[in-house]
Specification:
186 residues; 3-stranded antiparallel sheet
């Protein structure tokens, strides 16, 4: 039994050193090689500083709407709602999001709304929406801004980010970058 306890203690100490010291130092070291030392892409626009990898709230009809956030886009409190899809409070929240979206986009049918426009991500800070979620907002944006739908659609298409190495993930659009491109159009 003494032999088992000593082996368990050695394994515990070894894993603590590996996962609490070696691994974090390696990840930190690799991050130092990344642009901006692994702190993410910083965008300065109109006198403000934004992180492109953290979702932003856009409430005006002249902007593309972001994915909803369960934490009001507060990076210090990242997290989901942790409510099951059958939870009545969660269902009411989603229904309210659907109703709001339909009011702002009257030409859209309820069954056409992409799920990423009415449900929050696990972190509550997702900066991206699907290409479909951007496409469905084009008509509203064009009307509010007095632009042609073709011009707005072209901006959307220019902002599509392809999957990593063409394999990992799906096509997506960073909402902050898209809205800045929209503001600087023309």
């Amino acid at each position: 039994m003494k032999k088992d306890i000593i082996s368990a203690i050695r394994l515990t100490v070894a894993t603590i050193i590996l996962f609490a010291v070696v691994y974090p130092v390696c990840v930190w070291g690799i991050a130092q090689l990344a642009p901006n030392s692994g702190k993410g892409e910083i965008i300065e626009y109109a006198g403000n500083t934004y992180y492109s990898n953290i979702g932003q709230s856009f409430t005006s009809d002249k902007y593309f709407q972001s994915r909803p956030s369960a934490v009001n886009y507060n990076a210090a409190g990242s997290g989901g709602s942790n409510k099951a899809p059958s939870n009545s409070e969660y269902l009411e929240t989603v229904k309210a999001r659907i109703d709001t979206f339909l009011i702002n986009n009257p030409s859209i049918q309820k069954n056409e709304i992409p799920v990423d426009l009415i449900t929050a991500s696990a972190s509550g800070l997702d900066p991206n929406i699907s290409v479909q979620a951007a496409h469905i907002q084009v008509k509203r944006i064009a009307k509010v801004r007095g632009l042609s739908e073709t011009d707005v659609q072209k901006l959307v298409d220019e902002q599509i980010e392809k999957p990593l190495l063409g394999l990992f993930g799906t096509e997506k659009i960073n909402v902050l970058k898209l809205n800045i491109a929209l503001d600087t159009f023309r």
